[in-house]
Amino acid sequence: MSDERLRLAIQKSGRLSDGSFELLKSCGLTISRGRDKLYGRVQEMPIDVMLLRDDDIPAFVADNACDIGIVGQNVFEEELLSGIHDTPANEVMELGFARCRLMLAAPKEWSFDGATMLAGKRIATSYPALTKAWLEAESVDSKVVMMKGSVEVAPRLKIADAVCDIVSTGATLDANGLKPVATVFESQAILIRNALKFSPEKQAIFDALLKRINGVLRSRDAKYIMMNAPRSAVAAITEFLPGADAPTVLELAGNPEKVAIHAVCGESVFWDTLEELKKLGASAILVLPIEKMMP
Ligand code: ATP
Ligand code: ZN
């Protein structure tokens, strides 16, 4: 048997780590952490977990210190655009958590009427490459000032006129006399892998992991929906069900006119979906969460 293991990098602690641990848990994977807490081992699959600062993850993966990693798209794209790796890692898939926005923020007293207002101004950011790319796309010539942290204080200290920073609630901006004026980049957690070809053993572990991740992501929004309906309404209901494959239609004991319809809906099922189903003749509608799914 091969002793090949897949090396996965995730953030040690911070805004990505809860989501990363939760995703692995939903995949049925438990991590036993070593004493130094920099390494963990997945018990159920041959995967080693490396716990890092998020900013180090793209480089660790690009340089083949790890095979794959979970990182913010903002951090990954910034590294890609800055071109510091000869063979950068590749994005494999979006993971749907740690959503945030890189936003341009200006002093509240500015009456902002478009990117041209920024011409000749200084913009402080921890994301110079993403900011420059956006300015370029907007055909605006500004000076970008790199700051590692506390970007939002730059205008008050007269280091910059505006900032480009990750915004969630806007409270920090507000406290510093700033308001968000434009979205530069929309981000979420992504899975990345290095550009090297994996050995067949490693590829098999990676494929098995991907299959589980895909199953988790698909089941997050999916619902199992059950209802009774007149036989004559089956076609209309089948047509209407959001994101569903062919449903199962079952006999109802002692009632030849009616059937039970069961289906997996790939998209969210809302109250108006149920109301619409009722109008089509459905009754006793039940919507259940799905814990796991594998095609
Ligand atoms: P580290 O110590 O690992 O360097 P950090 O302080 O640089 O951590 P965090 O604040 O934990 O980073 O953010 C990590 C990533 O989480 C960001 O790069 C971004 O992708 C995402 N993120 C940042 N802010 C938010 C937010 N408010 N909501 C959701 N996700 C966010
Ligand atoms: Zn960081």
Task: Tell me what the structure shows.
It is a single chain. The mean pLDDT is 93. The strands form three sheets. The protein has a seven-stranded mixed β-sheet. A five-stranded mixed β-sheet has the order 9-8-10-7-11. Strands 14-15-13-16 form a four-stranded antiparallel β-sheet. The protein is flat. The protein has helices spanning 17-26, 57-62, 73-82, 128-137, 171-175, 200-221, 234-240, 271-279, and strands spanning 6-11, 31-33, 39-42, 47-52, 68-72, 90-94, 100-107, 122-125, 143-146, 162-167, 178-187, 189-193, 223-230, 248-251, 258-265, 283-289. The chain has 295 residues and is of the alpha+beta class. The two termini are 28 Å apart. It is built from eight helices and 16 strands. It folds into three domains: 6-97 and 189-219, Periplasmic binding protein-like II (D-Maltodextrin-Binding Protein, domain 2); 100-186, Periplasmic binding protein-like II (D-Maltodextrin-Binding Protein, domain 2); 222-289, Alpha-Beta Plaits (2-Layer Sandwich), CATH 3.30.70.120. 33% of the residues are buried. The structure holds adenosine-5'-triphosphate (ATP) and zinc ion. The site of adenosine-5'-triphosphate has 16 residues, from α3.
